[in-house]
Specification:
Blueprint: H1 3-31, E1 46-51, H2 56-71, E2 75-80, H3 87-98, E3 105-107, H4 112-118, H5 126-132, H6 140-146, E4 147-148, E5 151-152, E6 155-161, E7 164-168, H7 169-174, H8 183-195, E8 201-202, H9 207-222, H10 224-231, H11 236-239, H12 242-258, H13 267-275, E9 281-284, H14 287-293, E10 303-307, E11 315-324, H15 332-342, H16 345-355, H17 371-380, E12 387-389, H18 399-414, H19 420-440
Parallel strand pairs: 1-2, 1-3, 8-9, 11-12
Antiparallel strand pairs: 3-11, 4-5, 6-11, 7-9, 7-10
Helix pairs in contact: 1-19, 2-16, 9-10, 9-12, 9-18, 12-19, 18-19
Length: about 450
């Protein structure tokens, strides 16, 4: 790795690390500021909820939650932050916590849940989970995700399948095409669509959307075990592996198919482009199913769902969760009531029907789901061997490493002259930096929760 590249990567990383280190004493001091035997704070029946559900379909799902809370005499105070993949919301949340203005409930997902719990800021939901017998119906992966040091610190809402391929049924029927199941199938379908004058794939050059395509290509090339080596373990040897090289080369091939239409547009624009028939296929998380309904496009009628080519046996997942900030515990009763409500069968079914995901419950009825949701739920139910945590959607690692990996993938995608081997070397160097940091970083101590 060139010295300049190594220095730039280290500088970026040190800035991120310094930011997190600077935040920790402040938030721990705030948590410790309450007297050891403070009188119970007056209970409030309103909850400010910070989230990034801002598209038309996501807004309907959030409004459903607000309405169900209202039925429980709890007011939902909306704090929606625009931005795909929650990029803006994460920054706003950190700023608000540092300013002593944490929301009562917030969308925190993946390993970030443990990071916030490590600082002692999240309300433990053990009593709610025990009373509701959560362990009896939650998928094991979901149980592990919301637990931290034997405490339940978040409430799960739904599971999304990130490796979903959408295709136009009428167009595919007219051209006598089948949804591609392998990379070679994909290449053949693309060629036929282009020959018919149809843009083959709706794809943005926005960094997180490019990285989402790449993680699909990695999963297709390697399967979940290697995928975890690359994105969860961040093994430098995996970055240098031929399978990573093949996925990078395929990413460049896809760019060549759609180079004339590439632009940095939000995911909602890609869904709109597909809905208007301006592209034959779309690879996107299954939240696109809900967004397509806004254009009166329905599964099994207007479009079909399949797994992204090469990933039919796998589930590249993201999980929606809400965590509660403890604060002075004046909202605890409402927060616990909200957590209890979120996992009920009725809310799980209704919320995920509007959101495009599937329930986190093992006892959900797949017969009540559309074909897209049914394929997702039944695949996820097969267990960890077929599951892969989405890097892009915060399931695979911490925020700093995620952002740096996405930046490297986007850099390669944007520069057609960048050699594949150089991209692999840069990723391997980042992984070594991440692993060195993790070895040296001290763990935060559990503060006294004073409940």
């Amino acid at each position: 790795m060139r010295a300049s590249t190594r220095s730039a990567a280290r500088l970026c990383f040190e800035r991120l690390r310094s930011s997190l280190r600077a935040a920790l004493p402040v938030v721990l001091a705030a948590a410790a500021s309450l007297p050891a035997h403070a009188a119970p704070a007056p209970q409030s029946n309103s909850l400010q909820v910070l989230h990034w559900w801002t598209s038309a379909s996501e807004r309907k799902a959030a409004d459903l939650l607000a309405a169900r809370l209202a039925d429980e005499r709890i007011e939902w105070l909306d704090a929606a932050i625009p931005g795909g993949a929650g990029l803006g919301a994460g920054k706003v949340l950190k700023g608000r916590v540092l300013a002593g203005d944490a929301p009562e409930a917030t969308q925190i997902i993946g390993p970030s849940i443990a990071e916030w719990a490590d600082m002692g800021l999240l309300l433990e939901l053990d009593n709610v989970a025990a009373a509701g017998n959560w362990h009896s119906f939650l998928f094991p992966t979901i149980q592990a995700l919301i637990a931290h040091r034997k405490h339940i610190v978040a409430a799960p809402l739904g599971i999304h399948r990130v490796n979903t391929l959408y295709y136009h049924r009428a167009l595919f029927a007219r051209l006598k095409l089948a949804p591609p199941q392998t990379w070679n199938d994909f290449v053949a379908v693309v060629q036929k669509l282009r020959a018919a004058g149809v843009e083959p794939l709706a794809q943005s050059s926005q960094a997180w959307q490019v990285a989402a395509l790449f993680e699909n290509l990695v999963l297709a090339e390697s399967g979940p075990a290697f995928y975890r080596e690359l994105f969860v373990d961040r093994n430098p040897a995996a970055a240098a592996d031929r399978r990573t090289a093949e996925a990078l080369q395929r990413l460049r091939t896809v760019k060549g198919w759609i180079a004339g239409q590439l632009d940095e547009r939000p995911w909602t624009d890609m869904v709109a482009r597909f809905a208007r028939g301006q592209a034959g296929m779309l690879i996107m998380g299954d939240w696109a199913t809900a967004e397509l309904a806004e254009y009166h496009q329905l599964p099994d009628q207007d479009f079909g769902c399949a797994a992204a080519p090469g990933t039919g046996q796998y589930h590249l997942y993201s999980v929606d969760t809400l965590a509660m900030f403890a604060g002075d515990y004046s909202h605890m009763a409402a927060q616990e009531k909200m957590a209890r409500l979120l996992v009920t069968p009725a809310l799980q079914a209704d919320f995920n029907a509007l959101k495009g995901g599937v329930p986190v419950r093992r006892d959900a009825d797949p017969a009540l789901m559309d074909s897209c949701a049914r394929a997702s739920w039944t695949t996820f139910a097969q267990g960890a061997a077929v599951q892969a945590p989405s890097l892009v959607h915060r399931m695979a690692g911490d925020e700093a490493s995620r952002d740096a990996i996405i930046a490297e993938i986007h850099r390669f995608f944007s520069d057609d002259r960048a050699p594949v081997a150089e991209a692999q070397r840069r990723l391997a160097a980042l992984f070594r930096l991440f692993n060195l940091r993790n070895q040296k970083a001290p763990r935060a101590q559990d503060p006294d929760r004073r409940r």
